[in-house]
Amino acid sequence: MFIKNFFSYTAIFMFVLFVVVNSLALGQVGVGYPFLGVILLLSTYLFIATCPKVIIKIRKKNVASLIFLIVFFLYIFLSVIINTWDLSKLKALTIGTSGGILFSFLFGWIFSLCIDVIRNTSLSNRLRTSLHYIFLFFTLFACVFVVSNLLSSSSDRQLLVLDSAGAYQRPADLMIMSLMLIAAVSLVANEKNKTITFISINALCVSIVAMTLSLVSQLLGSNMGLVGCLAILIIYLFCVFFKETQKVINGVDFYLSKVLLNRKGNFWLAAIKLVLSLFLVFSLLVTLFDIPFDMLRITGYGSGEASSVNSRFAIIKKNFIDQLAYNPIFGHSEVETLLNTKGEYIHSFVLSLATHTGLIGLILFGLMMFFVYRERLRGTNLAGGQTFSLFRISIILFILLLGSFFTFYAWMPFWFALGLFGFSRHT
């Protein structure tokens, strides 16, 4: 049992190292692939070891979401092939480590297997706690190592790595994915050791990791990384410490409406208090390390404008109608190039689905998400404790909401979250 837990933590830490090397080697191709190879080897062993009798088991009650997922993927892949006849573009969209939706989904599912092993294998509390502390220690060390290296490469006039231009999106996406994973593992560990000391140390370590990754995202020039990491931290701490969330959950029958429409307002009151508290903590850290806000990209390096937000909305306003009108039924995977607006693709998850996959793709995606929520995220189908269940659905909703305003439909954090929480093996 120890071997399974050790391999699970090792696989997760390998992904942390993959994120680290990609943050330090901006713009380089093929960096960190050996870490992914180790993850695949370890996860293959875990998959076989935990399924000795039945290798693949599909629950009948969950089959609709799986069918629509497969149909949606096939539609996307066929659309790219028919529209471009370029296998390199198909590879980039499927298994590419910069925007591969299949790569992101499969690794999310692989890590859901690791989390399932950590939760369900029998291990002494002392050994389990020690293993988790070792994982947190090495994760913290890796994050500090990244910050120290990037700070030495930043400009004196603005908090930005000098050679990061155009290369920050990939490592920022990977950081969001890794923080999702670290927070999920910590919540599962809390289920096994419910002492206030352990839970507090866990929360402190996750907070430091999240704050560090937020700083790294700004060193690389990514506002999305900053917003994503801080929001995941807020959701994590909210699920851990605010007992008000339990008042809106009736047993294990967790329904989204009970949280969002809670008449007593405990959920939203707790959320407001937590956001304000974390904002103060983040401000204190920035002041402590003498990093003025006008050196951050999110403030426009002193201009007071979030230029990345403005440019995204400007592209939507300028090009969305024309790109949608090109082929509203089936869409086109290269529509921005065909309309002589190359590079000006729609930065919105839902809207880019409409322009690049058409009405059919949008309907397939909507049906898939409907059945994912109905079969896997709602009611008694939720696995694990109430806290972890709340965390899962909150992360998926947040990532989808964030992507709907700022990212392309191939945004890796969403597909990673879908594999990690939406199609996890224990649902």
TrEMBL record:
Keyword Hydrolase: no
Domain of life: Bacteria
TM helices/strands, residue ranges: 7-25, 31-51, 63-82, 94-118, 130-151, 171-189, 196-216, 222-242, 267-289, 345-372, 393-418
Protein keywords: Membrane, Transmembrane, Transmembrane helix
Keyword Transit peptide: no
The protein's name in its UniProt record: O-antigen polymerase
